[in-house]
Amino acid sequence: MSGHGHGRLLQYPKVPIGFAGHGLGPLVFLNHELAAVENEMNAPKKDLDWGNLGFSYIETELRFSARWRDGVWSEGELVASAEMPVHEGSTVLHYAQSCFEGLKAQTAVNGDILLFRPDLNCARMGRTTQRLLMPQVPEALFMRGIQETVRANAAWVPPYGSGASLYIRPFLVGVGENLGLRPAPEFEFRVFVSPVGPYYKGGGLSLIDLAVVDLDRAAPKGLGAFKAGANYAGGLMATQMAKELGAQEALYLDPAEHRFLEEAGSANIVLKMKDGTIVTPESESILPSVTRRSVMTLAADVLGMKTVARPVEFLKEVADIEEFAACGTAAVISPVGRVRSEDTWHRFYGNGEAIGPVTQQLYDLLTAIQKGEREDPYGWTHAV
Ligand SMILES: Cc1ncc(COP(=O)(O)O)c(C=O)c1O
């Protein structure tokens, strides 16, 4: 996508909402079907306390479902039930053959509903499916699943200015009769959505603390760089241990030597060093965050800062770090006030009690683009 403003997802055929029986093939809209699509988009907003939403599941009306069987994808359709009956032998239940993505839709200042870089989520899911021997979800199916689910649940998209957004969860699981350790005979791709507020308590741009605990998130040549469900079951205990230490989230060091910074449980790390450079840890076991890649681009292009991706030896370099931030779809950019490691709390900007100016600038830039308040020269935002 080039040029200014946000691109549209028009290259993906639109299926009339609520007319699943229409089938999916080449699309010819009947007038009353087009009206149904527009009605969904203009439906009155749900009566929610948008400004006080947490990051938890709220059931909406419709979700998208497609099946892969005998090497072929079904066309996919919107379904009403949030339940998913699966065979008891499904590989997702026993061997964690499962992967997912997470992105957000926001209401823009002009009323459009904007997605942020969904193409990167699609590409990342493609890498994950290869690693887990799952079938690739074709880009058109991935995008249509997102687009249809968001449009069908437009009444759940938080209004502009509420501070909330619509979290979108595409996922793929191995299902069907099976016993031995092998890829599943069938796969189900689903997309559901839920309106959400801030991921960390405190809301908006508020300080969080992280703690290094004695557990690894990933192995050196394991699944760290992939959005595999298995990574997250393993991280539950680390998060719990971090919380017991008074932090919001675990911070991981490299699994081979425990010297180099990796990432937090659900966010990558961006540092502003005292020498003025913006540094992000480089490692083969970090999830390539869409948010982090965007923030690094904005730091270089808009703020004119020097940006570097390199290994960061935490204890050796901690005194050189001025601002420490965690970034991700859910976390957006969360300033990190303190990091606990080996019984010591290391404090960053303002003695760990203030938000650093560069973190604030990056947050403002990123969220302004996501909400269509600032020109998007990169073509990152796409109206559904
Ligand atoms: C382990 C991990 N790291 C980083 C991120 C941030 O990635 P993104 O910016 O693509 O949301 C996530 C989730 O979103 C994550 O689960």
Quick structural summary:
With 384 residues, this protein is α+β, with helices and mostly antiparallel strands. 23% of the residues lie in helices and 26% in strands. It has two domains: 7-197, D-amino Acid Aminotransferase, Chain A, domain 1 (2-Layer Sandwich); 208-369, D-amino Acid Aminotransferase, Chain A, domain 2.
Q: Outline the low-pLDDT stretches.
A: 13-29
Q: What's the architecture of the largest domain, going by CATH?
A: 2-Layer Sandwich
Based on secondary structure, the structural category is: alpha+beta
Please provide the ordered H/E string of secondary-structure elements: EHEEEHEEEHHEEEHEEEEHEHEEEHE
How would you describe the shape?
A: globular
- In the CATH hierarchy, the third-tier topology of the largest domain is known as D-amino Acid Aminotransferase, Chain A, domain 1
* Relevant CATH superfamily of the largest domain: Aminotransferase class 4, branched-chain amino acid transferase, N-terminal domain
Proportion of residues in helical segments: 10-25%
